[in-house]
Amino acid sequence: MNTEQLSHFLLNLYDAVPAMGVEQFTRHAFGHLQNLLRFDSGGYVQFSAADNHQLRMTSASAFNLDAERKLRLRMEMLGYEKMHDLRELVSSDPLIKAGFRCPQTAVHGHAGDFGDKHLKDYAVATEALNTLTMVLPSSNGYPMQTLSLWRARSSARYTSAQCRLANAVLPHIFRAFLTNRELHVGKLYGSQQHSLISGLNGQIMYVDPALSALMFQHYPDWRPPFLPERLHRLLLADFSGVIQDGTLQVRWRQEHGLLFLSLTEIRIQLPLSPAENRVAQLLSEGLSYKEIARTLGNQPATVRNQAHQVYEKLGISGKAALMRYWKTHSAAMH
Questions:
Q1: CB-based contacts of 15: which residues, under 8 Å, 6+ apart?
Q2: Which of 43, 302, 315, 334 is most exposed, with minimal Cβ within 10 Å?
């Protein structure tokens, strides 16, 4: 790549930073980077260190891969990264360690070159036999960041020339990702879904970049990297896979000792009419459609239609969700 081509690439990259949302920009940036470095999948991750120095993902973006599956396999087969005395990275991934020792420098390698069966099995399972990685340690208030580009074919090794090209381009990708997130995180309109992965103890392993602002909005006392205590209690007591906590709807599942959450902010679109408000109140008390119809002197079909209008206006999925919603919002509904 000559100077003119690099300038064109960077101009295109930075022009998109303010114009695109986080997910759109991630696809855009990785897509243009793919044209340069010819990889199959990629990932950008921000980490934070807990008191025990274990590193956890606080933000991550994936390209052409199943992020949940890759994270699960990484934890199962390679374990966690840790910081030793905040200066040395302890990891089963030799390229991440090499990148930490040589920050802002691209490192590359084949999983079979390190003599580690677990590493190679993980690389085969995740179609990442050849890896190019760059690490930026935490500094000036910014978290530790990694950007990795993976190739599935064993013979598709990265070259020294591609590593030099990565050294010229990847620092700009890091800067663009950070700037884009700073501009767009917290700009939530309507109903949006955000993903989070935690251990059963509530320890967060992965969180969508836009989710932190939403979590702090709903849980002002939240102290990451653990789930808010109230949300964690609701999850442990629920067996349906869907809970409603105020205007936050959480769909979740448990798999391989992890909690996989999809969070949606539900905003009331229209106020309830007096009749709908009365039906909602009676539904929240556990009455059936027939019982409400007798109480109000209406037909059960009328009550059913009013109930569906309530569910639609409140953005909730049914009677059980309404009962939970009503407990925290009934005062504002009258």
A1: none
A2: 334
Instruction: Give the 3-state DSSP-derived string for the chain, with helices as H, strands as E and coil as C.
Output: CCHHHHHHHHHHHHHHCCCCCHHHHHHHHHHHHHHHHCCCEEEEEEEEECCCCEEEEEEEEEECCCHHHHHHHHHHHCCCCEEECCCEEECCCHHHHHHHHCCCCCEEEEHHHHCCHHHHHHHHHCCCCEEEEEEECCECCECEEEEEEEECCCCCCCCHHHHHHHHHHHHHHHHHHHHHHHHHCCCCCCCCEEEEEEECCCEEEEECCCHHHHHHHHCCCCCCCECCHHHHHHHHHCCCCEEEECCEEEEEEEECCEEEEEEEECCCCCCCCHHHHHHHHHHHCCCCHHHHHHHHCCCHHHHHHHHHHHHHHHCCCCHHHHHHHHHHHHHHHC
Cα torsion angle, 283, 289, 294, 298, sign: positive
Is the Cβ–Cβ distance between 264 and 248 less than 8 Å?
yes
Dihedral pair phi/psi, residue 152, rounded to 5°: -80, -35
pLDDT value, residue 201: 83
- Tens digits of residue pLDDT in 6-17: 888 999 999 999
